[in-house]
Amino acid sequence: MPMRILITGASGFIGSNLVRHLSTQGHEVVACVRNISRYTRYSDAVTYVECDFNHHVDSSDWLPLLDDIDMVINAVGIIQETASQKFSILHTDAPIALFKACAELQIKKVIQVSALGADESALSQYHLSKKKADNSLISSDLKWIIVLPSIVYGPGAKSMSFFKALASLVVTPLVEQGEQKIQPIHINDFCKAVAQLLVIDGNNRKINFVGPEAVTLKQTFVLLKCWLGVKKARFLPLSYNGSMLLARVGKWLPGIKAVNPLSTETIQMLKQGSTASVDPFVKLFSFTPISFSDSLARSPAQQADKWHAKLLLLRPLLIFSIAFIWIYTGIVSAFLYPIEGSQLLLAPFGVEGKWSLLAIYGFAFIDLVLGVAIL
């Protein structure tokens, strides 16, 4: 039976795939996005509404969006904090406000996309912030299901794109010996299972969403190197402290932060591990998720995949190069190139006297500003 479903985080990797999957199954999807202008060109099968979790921290903020909604799926999540995106707000305060509004309007069911590791052993702020929202939902009067995924991968997944970029290197850095375990689940299996949760019997439960087999970080890179056609798998083991230092440096590289899932906190999470038994998943949904190795084998890397992997880590260098050109031009124009020479170049255009000095230093200043802005 078609339902009217509100999906938060609809512009993210998991949320956007849930929107696509559930709308094609005939459900009426209301997708919450931060910038609605980007989605006005899409079909009428999905209703997009503007919603910024930073400003939806009270239950009253959610009530208008929940009008005539049957079920809610909260798929908002960030792996790293920024100046405008904080774990405490996006993972805790806003979801709790959403759950309170759902309870007030007696929404039939709430599905919370949390994270594997958001339990009693949680140490990272990422996991702890998710856990607080989970606990709030558990203590409510709502019918709820909490999904606890390991790494979710598939076309468009930023974290896996970064792993592919690292795998494309001649020598790939590892955290220690790369023995940290993950249990990736493909986005198609993730969406297929969530679709079943809408109608499945048995609410008020936590479900681990994991692939059929755990793989170490090193094994993940070996598989990706084979997929990309890298002839030899060479690795550079880094100490835990060295990995943390590299993560801190990467945080400030322009062009990398947007696609880099590795931070000091995610390295701590990797060390803790992200695995669980797949048996409860198989028993509940009656299918076994595709393994990471089989997924790669069924979708051979195309030339575009190989180029994207190789060029992704060059992004900071390209940004620095363009910025350097503007900054260098500004410095040369203002301080190194003879002013008389610059004035002679401007004279044929009728720019002379004090106006030539204003033009020289003015445009030099603009060059410097553009260079800094690019960074």
Helix content: 40-55%
Number of helices, where a helix is a run of at least 4 consecutive DSSP H or I residues: 15
Uncertain segments: none
- Gross geometry: globular
Please report the total strand number as a whole number: 13
Strand order of the largest sheet: 3-2-1-4-5-6-11
Keywords: Membrane, Transmembrane, Transmembrane helix
GO molecular function: protein-containing complex binding
Transmembrane segments: 312-335, 355-374
Protein name: NAD(P)-binding domain-containing protein
Topology, please?
Layout: E1 4-8, H1 13-24, E2 28-33, E3 46-50, H2 59-62, E4 71-74, H3 87-105, E5 109-113, H4 125-138, E6 144-149, E7 152-153, H5 158-167, E8 171-175, E9 181-182, E10 185-186, H6 187-197, E11 205-209, E12 215-216, H7 217-228, E13 234-238, H8 240-250, H9 264-272, H10 279-285, H11 292-298, H12 303-312, H13 315-336, H14 339-346, H15 354-374
Helix pairs in contact: 1-6, 3-4, 5-7, 5-12, 7-11, 13-15
How is this structure best described in words?
The chain is of the alpha/beta class. The protein has three domains: 1-149, Rossmann fold (3-Layer(aba) Sandwich); 153-182 and 212-275 and 290-313, UDP-galactose 4-epimerase, domain 1, CATH 3.90.25; 317-374. 47% of the residues lie in helices and 14% in strands. The protein has helices spanning 13-24, 59-62, 87-105, 125-138, 158-167, 187-197, 217-228, 240-250, 264-272, 279-285, 292-298, 303-312, 315-336, 339-346, 354-374, and strands at 4-8, 28-33, 46-50, 71-74, 109-113, 144-149, 152-153, 171-175, 181-182, 185-186, 205-209, 215-216, 234-238. A seven-stranded parallel beta sheet has the order 3-2-1-4-5-6-11, sandwiched between helices. The chain has a two-stranded parallel sheet with strand order 7-10. Strand 5 (109-113), helix 4 (125-138) and strand 6 form a beta-alpha-beta unit. Helix 5 packs across helix 7 (217-228), helix 7 runs parallel beside helix 11 and helix 13 packs antiparallel against helix 15 (354-374). The longest helix is centred in the C-terminal third of the chain and has 22 residues, at 315-336. The mean pLDDT is 91.
